[in-house]
Design a protein that fits this description.
The chain has 110 residues and is mainly α. The longest helix is centred in the middle third of the chain and has 19 residues.
Length: 110
């Protein structure tokens, strides 16, 4: 499997798990891809220069932006829906990635 197909398949798996509101972590992703977690780490690092956990978190945050713009859910509800165990950690990660808090993102997008 080439690198682009690998990343696309990994992305689809994470999005599918999020849509089903199932928790996904590196071990789960590796199992779904039928590779060892260490091999997953090496392939992700080589392809995107990020770890699998950062890859998963990035997809979670992208899903959160969609929910912020297209739902009336509270930030805490969105955090839990996309798989963050803590709303404060969610806000921290969100601000790190997008430069705004989730509420600022929602407010400025309208």
């Amino acid at each position: 499997m080439n690198t682009q197909n690998f990343i696309q398949q990994a992305s689809c798996i994470v999005k599918k798990q999020l849509s089903a509101q199932n928790d996904i972590d590196v071990a789960c992703l590796a199992k779904e891809l039928d590779i060892h977690p260490a091999h997953l780490y090496r392939k992700m690092k080589a392809a995107l220069d990020i770890s699998p956990s950062v890859f998963i978190r990035s997809i979670r945050l992208e899903k959160a932006t969609d929910l912020l713009l297209h739902s009336s859910l509270e930030v805490q509800q969105i955090a839990y829906q996309v798989g963050f165990g803590s709303s404060s950690y969610f806000i921290l990660c969100f601000k790190e990635k997008f430069g705004k808090t989730p509420m600022e993102y929602r407010t400025h997008a309208i």
